Amino acid sequence: MPELLAVNKNLFVEDAWQLDVFKGTGGYERARRALTEMSPEDLIAMMEASGLKGRGGAFFPTGMKWKFVRADPNTPRYVIANGDESEPGTFCNRFNMELDPHLFIEGMIIAAYAVDSHFGYIYIRGEYGRAIERVEQALADCYADGILGEDVLGSGYKLDLRLRRGAGAYICGEETALFNSLEGKRGNPRFKPPFPTNSGVWRKPTVINNIETFACVPLIVENGAEWFQDLGEGDENAGTKIYCLSGVINNPGVYELPMGVTARELIYEYGGGLPEGRTLKGFKPGGASAAILTAEQLDVRLDPSIAQYNTIMGTGGVIVMDETVCMVDAAYRDALFFEEESCGFCIPCREGTPNLVQILERLMHGQGVMADLQLMEEIGDSMASSFCGLGQFAYRPVVGAAEKYHDEFVAHVEGSCPAGSCPIAKN
Amino acid sequence: MTQATGPVEQTQADQSTVLESLRTRLADLKDEPGSLLEALYIAQEMLGYVAPESIEIIAEELGYPEAHVFGVVTFYTLFYTEPQPKHIVRVCRDLSCHIAGATEIAARARQEIGAHPGHASPDGLLKLELVSCLGQCEKQPALMVNLDVHGPVTEEGVSDLIRSLREEDQ
Asked: Which of A67, A124, A181, B82 could lock onto A187 through a cystine, CB 3.0 to 4.6 A?
């Protein structure tokens, strides 16, 4: 839906990943203006006024984050772009990095100047081969063109950016685990507080933002805070979000839409609805970590306010399911993911995730008992005390599915799969 | 950037030469704090896996205890501590791909490869891995051969793909 694209227009501009093409769209003029005509304080105030919040799923106000980092007297300060996108059902950062890498780099330059940082990292998951190539090329072009280095865009400001690759670990998308990974360690998370704004990579004040968050920054500088604020649905939302759509849907893909569109609009108006003859059963609003919502909840807004329905907006990775999808099986897939990706550092997560997998396996093979449903909740209760967000969220999609589709779980205990698609149905 | 996994054919004889050149290539990383993952990528590119000898050299050159390097290697799924087949077929097993038929795709891949997930095929050329979301969900069901993305794939398509990977090596 190109007419709705506000921030990421370049996703539809051919070869926008090339520096000269990007410059033709106004690229790096925003950074030049920011570094030569604006004060860091003005920029931070502009971000605050724009209402920009972190697109990685935590929705922390970006301007406030930058302000905290700038206020910390410790130096050096660091700027990090989090491109470790690994949440199941999420792939929007990949589009940013492959098709429009200069846009978020320009955002990083502006952020670095705003917090007086002279060094930054771009951390990309190791599986994203093409994104890594494109960003590497983009950085090389920036150095060759004087956009990065000793004299950024002729402003006299010095900034170096390094590309670093992850190597297959979902947990490294968690900011403190990412710092450890950048420092050449296992990707275990750290205790918070202290927060990254005061103690990030190398224990120094660090701005860490999602790739998509940085991509918004140049457009805010270009068009103003009010323009960005007005892009969102309602008063609470600012800007756009790149929603990802997958599962049982006619047109899987990415859609940049006003932050806060309803699930109904995304699925039916933009995603083309479900294939003919298929009926919506439920959908996950934000990747594996988000608890499922039912077909009756289609009119919820896809924004942080979705928390009132005991789920999360997360990364905006919407996964659509129809009547043929078994909810025990769907919960099992999520459990399996978190079991694999648990870093093993704390016990509730390390032990809880495989326990959930085992219970769901039992249910799917006709060996479950009613007490298993209760047991899942109890395991969930103990996982709530996990060290980091992974374990604190990992049980919710499982417990949530068992609650919303209780009858279907009970049917498995009784030996049948109403959807007819999990192993119990095939025996 | 080096390939994440690019298993190379290597004879015992030139392993020592490779290890010496690893030492040379690490020189650039000595002044780059926290570059251990990059060092491991280099080591893996040169031998096809991170050999015990490579761990020793990296530890020495970058100033880490060997145990630290080993701990890092084994934390990340893209690093291997044993020689790998040339082609690693990574089939996503998460929700979107699963709904779109990834389980059948994986079953077909296993049949064509002739080995269980995580094990090398009888001819030593291929290995199937069932992996977490690859971030290619619009191509559901998706898979990667090393880092090359394929999708949406069909069961037929998987058979053809694996056949062509085998033919490539004849």
From this structure: A181
Chunked mean pLDDT (size 10), chain B, 170 residues: 52 78 94 96 96 97 97 98 97 98 98 98 97 98 97 98 92
Q: Domain B87-168 is of which CATH architecture? A: 3-Layer(aba) Sandwich (3.40)
Read off the pLDDT of each residue in A225-245 and give the average, rounded to a whole number. Answer: 96
Q: Read off the pTM.
A: 0.96
Question: What ipTM does this complex have?
Answer: 0.95
B50–chain A Cβ distance below 8 A for any pair: no
**Which residue in chain B is spatially nearest to A132 when comparing CA positions?**
B1
**In the predicted model, is pLDDT for residue A2 greater than 50?**
no
The full DSSP string for A181-235 is: HHTTS------SSSPTTTS-GGGS-EEEEEHHHHHHHHHHHHH-HHHHHHHSSTT
Neighboring chain B residues of A163 at a CB cutoff of 8 Å: 1
Question: Is A90 within 8 Å of B135 when comparing Cβ atoms?
Answer: yes
Cβ of B94 and A127 within 8 Å?
no
Domains of chain A are 2-231 (3.40.50.11540), 240-322 (3.10.20.600), 327-426 (1.20.1440.230)
Are residues B100 and B61 in contact, defined by beta-carbon separation less than 8 angstroms? no
